[in-house]
Amino acid sequence: MKKIKKIKFKINGKIVSIVEGLSLSRIIKDLKIPVNKVAIELNKEIVDKKRINNIKIKDKDMIEIVHFIGGG
After folding, report:
1. Which residue segments constitute the domains of the chain, with CATH numbers given?
2. For residue 7, what are the CA distances in angstroms to 3, 28, 46, 50, 69?
Protein backbone atom coordinates (compact mmCIF):
# COMPACT_ATOMS: atom_id res chain seq x y z
CA MET A 1 0.00 0.00 0.00
CA LYS A 2 1.38 3.38 -1.02
CA LYS A 3 1.63 5.95 1.75
CA ILE A 4 0.12 9.36 0.97
CA LYS A 5 2.66 12.11 1.58
CA LYS A 6 1.49 15.47 2.85
CA ILE A 7 3.36 18.73 2.41
CA LYS A 8 2.99 22.12 4.07
CA PHE A 9 3.15 25.48 2.35
CA LYS A 10 2.06 29.04 3.06
CA ILE A 11 -0.69 30.82 1.20
CA ASN A 12 -1.19 34.50 2.08
CA GLY A 13 0.61 33.88 5.38
CA LYS A 14 -1.49 30.87 6.41
CA ILE A 15 0.11 27.42 6.69
CA VAL A 16 -1.78 24.79 4.71
CA SER A 17 -1.26 21.02 4.48
CA ILE A 18 -2.09 19.20 1.23
CA VAL A 19 -1.35 15.94 -0.55
CA GLU A 20 1.98 16.09 -2.41
CA GLY A 21 1.84 16.60 -6.17
CA LEU A 22 -1.02 19.07 -6.55
CA SER A 23 -0.65 21.79 -9.14
CA LEU A 24 -0.96 25.49 -8.47
CA SER A 25 -4.02 25.61 -10.74
CA ARG A 26 -5.74 22.89 -8.66
CA ILE A 27 -5.16 24.86 -5.45
CA ILE A 28 -6.47 28.08 -7.03
CA LYS A 29 -9.53 26.19 -8.33
CA ASP A 30 -10.18 24.53 -4.93
CA LEU A 31 -10.05 27.96 -3.27
CA LYS A 32 -12.60 29.24 -5.85
CA ILE A 33 -10.33 32.14 -6.80
CA PRO A 34 -11.02 33.72 -10.22
CA VAL A 35 -7.57 33.43 -11.80
CA ASN A 36 -8.22 36.31 -14.22
CA LYS A 37 -8.79 38.73 -11.32
CA VAL A 38 -5.67 38.02 -9.26
CA ALA A 39 -1.89 38.19 -9.37
CA ILE A 40 -0.10 35.09 -8.09
CA GLU A 41 3.35 35.08 -6.55
CA LEU A 42 5.22 31.83 -5.84
CA ASN A 43 8.31 32.12 -3.66
CA LYS A 44 8.51 35.88 -4.30
CA GLU A 45 8.27 35.56 -8.11
CA ILE A 46 5.23 36.51 -10.18
CA VAL A 47 3.72 33.45 -11.87
CA ASP A 48 2.87 33.45 -15.58
CA LYS A 49 -0.76 32.29 -15.47
CA LYS A 50 -0.25 30.26 -18.66
CA ARG A 51 2.06 27.99 -16.63
CA ILE A 52 -0.05 27.36 -13.51
CA ASN A 53 -1.18 23.91 -14.73
CA ASN A 54 2.47 22.81 -14.88
CA ILE A 55 3.62 24.16 -11.51
CA LYS A 56 3.59 21.58 -8.72
CA ILE A 57 3.50 22.89 -5.17
CA LYS A 58 6.42 21.72 -3.06
CA ASP A 59 6.99 21.53 0.67
CA LYS A 60 7.64 24.98 2.20
CA ASP A 61 6.57 26.92 -0.91
CA MET A 62 5.12 30.39 -0.26
CA ILE A 63 2.17 31.62 -2.33
CA GLU A 64 0.75 35.12 -2.24
CA ILE A 65 -2.47 35.92 -4.07
CA VAL A 66 -3.44 39.53 -4.61
CA HIS A 67 -6.94 40.47 -5.78
CA PHE A 68 -7.36 43.40 -8.17
CA ILE A 69 -9.80 46.03 -6.91
CA GLY A 70 -11.22 48.72 -9.16
CA GLY A 71 -11.59 52.25 -7.95
CA GLY A 72 -11.41 55.80 -8.94
Report:
1. 6-67 (3.10.20.30)
2. 13, 17, 22, 24, 32
**Confidence at 41, pLDDT banded by 50, 70, 90:** very high
> What mean pLDDT is predicted for residues 37-66?
95
Among the residues of the chain, which ranges form H helices? 24-30
pLDDT beyond 80 at 23: yes
Q: Distance between CA 3 and CA 30 in Å, rounded? A: 23
In order, the DSSP letters of 21-61 are: T-BHHHHHHHTT--GGGEEEEETTEEPPGGGTTTPBP-TT-
pTM to 2 decimal places: 0.85
